Amino acid sequence: MVLHLQTNADFEKVFVPSSFGQEKMTILETIDTPIGSYSPDFELPGVDERVHHLSRYLENLRSVCVISMCNDCPYVELYVSRLKSIQAEFSPSGFTLIGLNGSHANNNDVKNGEDFSPGSNFEKMKAFAQQHELNFPYLRDSTQDVTCSFGAIITPTAFLIDHDGILRYKGQIDDHPQDPLAEGTDYLRNAIAALFQGQEIQPVQTQPVGTPLVWRK
């Protein structure tokens, strides 16, 4: 499956699963926010009926991590508990995760500009957040502008931002999606810890593995 964005950005190689548990390499064109550059700012509605401003979070926190996610991605389901654990571990130190749902309707009609996807409309997002008792904000990017600006093409993908708004890590949450108890590398947790300890983050980028985002035609 190849997804296309109408941009002048660079080509990237990413893992795009043709079916859950089965990956293949593909090439697609995306806007890219490079490591070390400023992340895109945003003002987006959350399932808590509030508008969330990235810049305001960064005024008060040491770091924010935006997670590109959606309701019906099986990889997101695998990671929800781990994301909640990361939020609980680091939020006392001035940190928050922010879930970002920029997935378009999945082969459903869009009427009057509203998304009627069974997995991605706003009411389903609220139900998802309640069902999983999310302990971090979950926002809807209905225009897909923010999602595109970050360069997200796979759910889930992590974008770790420091207090100054600089992107410091992006990619996988860890390298063992199927088994949370397996031995492996916890990329995101390690990156947050290194950032807070003033240490170098290594690696700063990993290949995202998950489900392709659905884009407007």
Features:
217 residues; alpha+beta; five-stranded mixed sheet; two-stranded antiparallel ribbon; 11 strands; 23% helix; disordered N terminus
What does this structure look like?
By secondary structure, the chain is an alpha+beta fold. 23% of the residues lie in helices and 25% in strands.
Flag low-confidence runs: 1-29, 106-116
Structural class: alpha+beta
Q: How would you write the strand order of the largest sheet?
A: 7-6-5-9-10
Give the percentage of residues in beta strands: 15-25%
Which radius of gyration do the C-alpha atoms yield?
A: 16 Å
Q: What's the total number of strands?
A: 11
Q: Which overall shape is indicated by the principal axes computed on the Cα atoms?
A: globular
In whole angstroms, the N-to-C terminal distance is 14 Å
Could you state the oligomeric state of the chains shown? single chain
Largest sheet: 5 strands, mixed
What's the pLDDT, averaged over the residues?
83
Number of helices: 5
* Portion of residues within helices: 10-25%
Short structural description:
This protein has 217 residues and is α+β, with helices and mostly antiparallel strands.
Compile the SSE list and pairings.
Elements: E1 11-19, E2 22-29, E3 43-45, E4 51-53, H1 54-60, E5 63-68, H2 74-90, E6 95-101, H3 122-131, E7 138-140, H4 145-150, E8 154-155, E9 157-162, E10 167-171, H5 187-196, E11 211-212
Parallel strand pairs: 5-6, 6-7
Antiparallel strand pairs: 1-2, 3-4, 5-9, 8-11, 9-10
